[in-house]
Write a structure and sequence with these properties.
Radius of gyration: 22 Å
Number of helices: 14
Structural class: alpha/beta
Distance between the termini: 39 Å
Shape: globular
CATH architecture of the largest domain: 3-Layer(aba) Sandwich
Helix content: 25-40%
């Protein structure tokens, strides 16, 4: 019997199907979700993985048996499910394992208005109910079961996004999109319909076995096909989406990756033009450029921990207009504080098409520092290695230390963050400095302590 602590993570459910979870467990999760939210109705959606339709329908059966009406929107991206949760004002459940390999699947859950469900906001209660019912007699069925109906919201989702960014006056653009056989292949054609864009589609066939490459653009090897196609065709820009299409990565017309921090700064400047004086959230690993650009554009930057529950929580608390992460998650007040890579992509296309220069020239003003990117080290003792690094830097003249998320050391010329993974025996290092040589020096010094 599966130990549910292995599949119920901090923000979602995720594990190997059928080894760790299956449709029987999915049905119990549906019943528990219905009980914990107390909702009369919920909405569900799923990605293109082979196991997704069956798991999603089992979840719907479990919720309906408890008297909850279920609206199934079928194949969708995660941000399309968030749209449905927001527009219909219903709790939602999305069946996806994002960028994980094909044998995985999972559930991302939210309350009405796309408010996140995590360990402290309902997920622990859901897990406890599932364990209780699995080990006992199961949930009691309602006197009157709920209904299961279908609804197509793809067109409404696309209309909503296009209503938030004016692309009518842009110059024609040649855009390569690598959907990685994920849900971008489902959403991009409808969202881009009618725009002055020549779309070059890479791997748009929905295939949850990922025959071409992993749908994880954060790994550089998974964007090499996109880079090559942009260079071969002379495209203006390349976009890559992850498996559930909630994250978007950008490459410029030379095929060079544009850092998510630069995209965060660019979109922040645009949102501040729309909402003067607004607050922008950024996590502790985004570039110095982000708070600088926010301040230069009259906004207030707020720094937070890594992770969507922290970003969304701070957005709700501060009334922020936008939030961005180093991992290419972008959050918008106009989208119920939820993350949508598609809306970020539309902002970048609008900015690029609204002027005559190449993307590399446009983003240069937002990409001001040298960075290491995220470097992972496998360690047996995360706490001990972190303490050793802290001891090495604590008290050095001109250094500041904070532990908002892992360990951050800051000086006038560089900073680094070292934090443990929540799910693996890894320490993740990010370094930024005013020049490449300093990045390499600090990187090597820290890794020398971490790796012994």
């Amino acid at each position: 019997m599966t130990d549910l602590s292995q599949i119920v993570k901090a923000y979602d459910v995720r594990g190997v199907v059928p080894d760790q979870w299956d449709e029987t467990l999915a049905e119990l999760f549906g019943a528990a979700f219905a009980q914990v939210t107390g909702a009369a109705a919920i909405v569900t959606g799923h990605d293109m993985r082979p196991s997704s339709p069956g798991l999603s329908r089992a979840f719907a059966r479990g919720a309906a048996a408890r008297g909850t009406n279920v609206t199934e929107i079928g194949l969708c991206s995660t941000d399309q499910l968030y749209y449905a949760s927001g527009a219909l004002d219903l709790p939602g459940a999305m069946f996806t394992a994002s960028h994980n390999p094909a044998q995985y699947n999972g559930i991302k859950m939210c309350r009405a208005g796309a408010a996140p469900v995590g360990q402290d906001t309902g997920l622990a209660e859901i897990r406890a109910l599932v364990e209780q019912w699995r080990d006992g007699d199961g949930p009691q069925p309602a006197d009157r079961p709920g209904t299961i109906t279908q609804r197509d919201v793809l067109g409404d989702y696309a209309d909503h996004l296009r209503g938030l960014v004016d692309l009518t006056g842009i110059r024609p653009l040649k855009v390569v999109v690598d959907a990685g056989n994920g849900m971008g292949g489902h959403t991009v054609p409808t969202v881009f319909e009618g725009l002055p864009i020549e779309l070059d589609a890479l791997y748009f066939e929905l295939d949850g076995t990922f025959p071409n490459h992993e749908a994880n653009p954060l790994d550089p090897k998974n964007i090499t096909d996109l880079q090559a196609r942009v260079r071969e065709t002379g495209a203006d820009i390349g976009l890559a989406f992850d498996g559930d299409a909630d994250r978007c990565f950008v490459v410029d017309g030379d095929g060079e990756p544009v850092s998510p921090s630069a995209i965060t700064a660019l979109v922040a400047a645009r949102e501040l033009a729309k909402y003067p004086g607004g607050t922008v959230i950024h996590n502790c690993i985004t570039s110095w450029s982000v708070p600088e650009v926010v301040k230069e554009n009259g906004g207030t930057p707020v720094r937070t921990r890594v992770g969507h529950s922290f970003i969304k929580g701070e957005m709700a608390r501060t009334g922020a207009i936008f939030g961005g992460e180093h991992s290419a998650h972008y959050y918008f007040r106009d989208f119920w504080n939820a993350d949508t890579g598609m809306l970020a992509a539309l902002h970048v296309l609008a900015a690029l098409g609204g002027q005559d220069g190449p993307l590399s020239q446009l983003v240069a003003q937002y990409d001001r520092y040298a960075a290491s990117g995220e470097i992972n080290s496998t360690v047996d003792d995360q706490t001990g290695r972190l303490a050793a690094v802290r001891a090495a830097y604590e008290g050095r003249e001109g250094t500041e230390l904070d532990e908002l998320d892992g360990l951050t050391i800051t000086t006038a010329d560089w900073w680094f963050n070292l934090r443990p993974s929540n799910t693996e025996p890894l320490l993740r290092l990010n370094v930024e400095a005013r020049d490449r040589e300093t990045v390499e020096r600090v990187r090597d010094e820290v890794l020398g302590i971490v790796r012994g």
